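Usage example:
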Amino acid sequence: SYVLTQAHSVSAAPGQTARITCGGNNLGSKNVHWYQQKPGQAPVMVIYDDSDRPSGIPERFSGSNSDNTATLTISRVEAGDEADYYCQVWDSSTTHPVFGGGTKLTVL
Amino acid sequence: EGQLLESGGSLVRPGGSLRLSCAASGFTFSNSAMNWVRQAPGKGLEWVSMMTGTYNTYYTDSVEGRFTISRDNSMNTLFLEMNSLRVEDTALYYCAKGGPQPRPFDFWGQGTLVTVSS
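Running the assembly step on the lines above writes:
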């Protein structure tokens, strides 16, 4: 089955840029979606189809996907961005969705 | 954006059964693919099951044959019948609108907690 790999944790100071990566075989050929999960809350979609932003999500959130790596970039990081971030794709061989293991963003 | 409200979670003994419900509102439920996604304590997200608007069903391998997903479009409600429960099924179970591939999970409920323990 398809595997998505994420770093366990990332940190950034307020005002800086945080980059959260997601790795997978030929990931650039798939549509990557990103979810933010704050402590004690349900996940919220922040990026879909590699780089599109749902309404209500700040422009500070952006995404890219190429080759074997997708990246969620958070510009001008704020304390409120501290959360777990998960990437997700669909495994075309099983038709099942797959989540990465999640990356914890710590705002210093 | 719609809303999803899960219910039915509780403490159950290994080998027991449980039925989860997810009440939907604010969107056209009948033609939407709906999912159950779980999160074990301190762990990541794990997809469990999906039912499309045309009643096709899908399950992750670990629950195949034990869990059954269903829906009642007249009540805008999604269900998950869980049998032969195991300790490793302990998790917060989320209902989520999304799929089939390659569509994302648009929005999620707040979850209902299932604890399997003797």
